[in-house]
Amino acid sequence: MTVTVQEVMDAGIFPMATDEDVMWVQAGLDWLDVYTTLPISKLTLDILPPGAKLFLQQYRDLMQRHGIASEREYRGPVTELYRRQH
């Protein structure tokens, strides 16, 4: 899914979105596509469930703050965050 700054803002994910935010949203969507049953390729940002939108916000914040040292470490906190929202 190709995402634009305007789409990110219109969906309410980041009201003051930048190109960097778009990159994080796309990375978060890739994660959701691999590790959840959400049909990401069939959805647009504006109809994502609220929990998925929150996940994308927190995904960016978590990755910017801590980065990732390994896939195992990466999947742990993010997976728990997503599970708590659903």
Q: Describe it for me?
A:
The two termini are 23 Å apart. The protein has 86 residues and is mainly α. 22% of the residues are buried. It has helices at 5-10, 19-35, 50-66, 71-85. The protein contains four helices and no strands. The mean pLDDT is 82. α2 crosses α3 and α3 packs antiparallel against α4 (71-85).
Percent helix: 55-70%
Radius of gyration: 12 Å
Globular, elongated, flat, extended or rod-shaped: what is the shape? globular
The low-pLDDT segments are: none
**Structural class by sheet pairing and helices:** mainly alpha
Calculate the terminal CA-CA distance, rounded to whole Å: 23 Å
SS element count, helices? 4
- Strand fraction: under 5%
Number of strands: 0
Give the averaged pLDDT, no decimals: 82
Main sheet record:
none
**Topology as a string of helices (H) and strands (E):** HHHH
SSE topology:
Elements: H1 5-10, H2 19-35, H3 50-66, H4 71-85
Jot down its keywords.
86 residues; mainly alpha; 64% helix
Q: Summarize this, please?
A:
This protein has 86 residues and is an all-alpha fold. It contains four helices and no strands.
